[in-house]
Specification:
Largest sheet of chain B: 7 strands, mixed
Shape of chain B: globular
Shape of chain A: globular
Oligomer: heterodimer
Largest interface: A-B, 47 and 48 residues
Structural class of chain A: alpha/beta
Structural class of chain B: alpha/beta
Low-confidence stretches of chain A: none
Helix content of chain B: 25-40%
Helix content of chain A: 25-40%
Order of helices and strands of chain B: HEHEHEHEHEHEHEEEEEEEHHEH
Low-confidence stretches of chain B: 1-7
Number of helices of chain A: 12
């Protein structure tokens, strides 16, 4: 099991951070900046990017009153940054991270690590060779996860035998499956995702259509990595484009199930899906079930939470508000500790790469109908 | 048959075999369709049925083990009694079919139920499915964790019985048979000297044809005490979550609070009894299992997958 132990900082260097593209989850650089020892100093991207990319980068730079530089390499050279924060389209994640790593910067990268395993391999190799730290953004420090980790560390249920994670987002994604009328054009992925930015549900933005398993699978697999501390060896999976026309039109899944065998003999399973607003009153059922040799655990990722109801409440507003979420700070504390002591981050490049490999094998299994080995 | 006719029909005389007579004592008075002429423990029943009996049916409870079930069914047939078997999964489905045929050959009837079908949480999920409220199912997710009884540890044969129960439940809920399945067990060793008799667990993952996926996680041997059960169905129009986790109450008695589950009481047993009476007013929550070829094929495929370590295609004959 990986360590979640926090540590008090004794000396307090400030790490200057270059934000390399911020076209989707601005919460990543915002989360970095929330830690007092990390300071955003520049936003950068390549000049050949389309206008919508430059526009988003510029807006973020303006919001933080820092320059936007249309030259990544110059930004890495000239602003004294020691950390890069990457939140581009998924297919550009590893390329931007690699450039930062080669320039000697530590990297905080948005999820997923990549939709291409070879890109992940290059990052793993570069991180090792350059001796820098890499943190793949994750939810492993949410209170429910920390609690589960503590219970396992205390040996409350003995040795973990099996682990099962449900990770549903009860959100719509445009018109439902089957809504396309004869003569209608298929929904263009990138155009759809750009439009979805308004409500923050553009996590799969990019030229390459990204299914829900590829996009969100990192979270449940990150939990399994945290709680079991072992790579996945075999996977069997089923996928479907079941809910949303945009997924049907672009032939990527919006729901998936995986069964797993880990290298330490633990078995597991994952359900992941973007299952529509109607399927849950809150963000979605996110649960962890663990069976050990001497007991078992059922953990709701959402706890603790406070229920708030009032007249005129917007339909889409979450009525159960999660509280005591110290995710950003704990992730950055973990990253800071890794930089200063050389300890691994809670989800490092190798773990991110292994998760990508699991997802690739799962997608292959969903087509073959067979059990696939994770490389 | 109309409700008034069913109420007017003479009650069936039944003899119940169960390890828990008190439960039947509580519930049978709610079933005017039955006249209970005897309740006996499994070990006592053979002797009791040797004597002349006025009963017409033998009801074998879900808590009677497979060896005793076979013996009791043989005795019932010999004595000219039709039989109701509360849990079909106690026997191989093929064997059950053979026994059903053997009863029919002498003009008797053997019907079998499935206790999980009669759970109100299951019934509610199924009703939502049937009403179209959930749309086309995408994921059926099941957890069933059972506790060891005292020091006896995990009972032999629990795994096969649980597989049959859930193969039936899946096919019944979905009204289809999955075409592919992979089943696995963990291979983690217990810590010597600290874990005693470890929990046993397995899972099966089935899917197709179409988008529906099934994940079923089964465990036995939790420390004596509460058990855990959960069924969720994620559909194209909505979802249903039947989960013991949601039905927990808190008990504070010092130290960490206990999470006490508010249980379903006698409701499942009552529904099971109602299901055996075809003319009962109102729709029974579950019908006896007439035949279960899909569930039989799925449970066989699960067994083969556990043996081979590979996924098994039912269409390719893996369920035969």
């Amino acid at each position: 099991m990986n360590s979640l132990a926090p540590s008090a900082s004794t000396n307090r260097p400030v790490y200057r951070c270059a934000v390399l593209s911020v076209v989707k989850h601005a919460y990543v650089p915002r989360g970095v900046a929330a830690h007092p020892q990390f300071r955003l100093v520049v936003v950068a991207d390549d000049p050949d990017q389309p206008d919508w990319v430059h526009q988003r980068n510029q807006e973020f730079a303006d919001e933080w009153n820092i320059p936007y530089v249309c030259d990544v390499d110059r930004a890495l050279r000239e602003y004294g940054a020691t950390v890069a924060v990457v939140s581009s389209e998924a297919e550009r994640h590893c390329g931007l991270s690699l450039r930062a790593i080669e320039a000697g910067l530590h990297v905080v990268q948005d999820k997923p690590m990549s939709n291409r395993l070879a890109d992940c391999d290059r990052v793993v190799e570069a991180v090792r060779r350059r001796g820098v730290q890499f943190l793949l953004w994750n939810r492993n420090f949410l209170p429910g996860l920390v609690h589960a980790h503590e219970l396992l560390a205390r040996g409350e249920i003995g040795v973990v035998q099996s682990i099962h994670v449900d990770f549903y987002f009860a959100k719509d994604a445009g018109p439902p499956r089957g809504s396309r009328q004869p003569g209608d054009s298929p929904i263009d992925w990138l155009t759809f995702q750009i439009a979805a930015h308004a409500d923050g549900s553009d996590g799969a933005i990019g030229r390459d259509p990204l299914g829900e398993l590829s996009n969100e699978g990192i979270y449940p697999l990150g939990y399994i990595h945290l709680l079991c501390g072992a790579r996945v060896r075999q996977v069997f999976a089923r996928t479907a484009a079941h809910f949303h026309q945009v997924n049907v039109d672009n032939q990527v899944e919006d729901v998936a199930t995986m069964s797993l065998v880990l290298e330490n003999g633990v078995t597991g399973s994952v359900c992941v899906g973007r299952i529509g607003n109607a399927a849950h009153p809150e963000i979605g059922e996110i649960k962890i079930h663990i069976v050990g040799t001497r007991g078992a655990l059922v953990i709701s990722e959402a706890r603790p939470e406070v229920a708030v109801y009032y007249r005129g409440q917007p339909e889409k507003e979450f009525k159960h508000r999660r509280v005591a979420i110290d995710l950003d700070h704990r992730l950055l504390e973990n990253f800071r500790l890794a930089i200063e002591t050389g300890s691994p981050t809670v989800l490092d490049a190798q773990a991110g790469r292994d998760i990508c490999a699991t997802i690739q094998a799962a997608l292959k299994s969903a087509v073959s109908g067979r059990v696939e080995r994770v490389v | 048959m109309s409700p008034s006719q069913s109420v007017a029909a003479p009650p069936l005389r039944i003899h119940v075999v169960t390890a828990d007579p008190a439960a039947y004592d509580r519930v049978l008075p709610r079933c005017p369709q039955f006249e209970c002429v005897g309740i006996s423990l499994p070990a006592d029943t053979s002797r009791g049925l040797q004597a002349p009996t006025t009963s017409e049916r033998l009801l074998i409870g879900a808590d009677v083990g497979p060896d005793q079930v076979l013996s009791l069914l043989g005795l019932a047939r010999q004595r000219g009694l039709s039989a109701w078997l509360a849990d079909a999964a106690v026997l191989e489905f093929d064997l059950l079919d053979e026994l059903r045929q053997a009863f029919a050959e002498v003009g008797l009837e053997l019907q079998a139920g499935q206790p999980i079908r009669h759970r109100p949480m299951v019934d509610t999920v199924r009703a939502a499915l049937r009403a179209g409220q959930l749309g086309e199912p995408a994921i059926v997710r099941i957890h069933d964790w059972r506790a060891a009884a005292g020091t006896q540890g995990v009972p032999a044969g629990w795994e096969l019985r649980a597989i049959r129960q859930y193969a039936d439940l899946v096919c019944w809920l979905l009204e289809m048979t999955p075409d592919t399945v992979w089943a696995i067990r963990p291979t983690v060793a217990a810590r010597p000297g600290t874990d005693g008799t470890p929990v046993e667990t397995l899972q099966f993952h089935a899917g197709g044809p179409g988008p529906t996926m099934v994940l079923c996680d089964l465990a036995h041997g939790l420390p004596a005490g509460d058990e855990y059960w959960s069924l969720s169905v994620i559909g194209s129009r909505g979802a249903a979550y039947a989960d013991d986790h949601r039905n927990r109450q808190l008990l504070f008695g010092g130290g960490t609070a206990r999470a006490e589950c508010t249980r379903e009481g006698d409701w499942p047993l009552w529904q099971m009894l109602r299901s055996f009476w075809p003319g009962v007013p109102g729709k029974p929550t579950g019908e006896p299992i007439r035949e279960a070829p899909g569930a039989a094929a799925l449970s066989r495929a699960i067994g083969r997958s556990l043996q081979s370590g590979e996924s098994v295609s039912l269409e390719a004959g893996g369920g035969r």
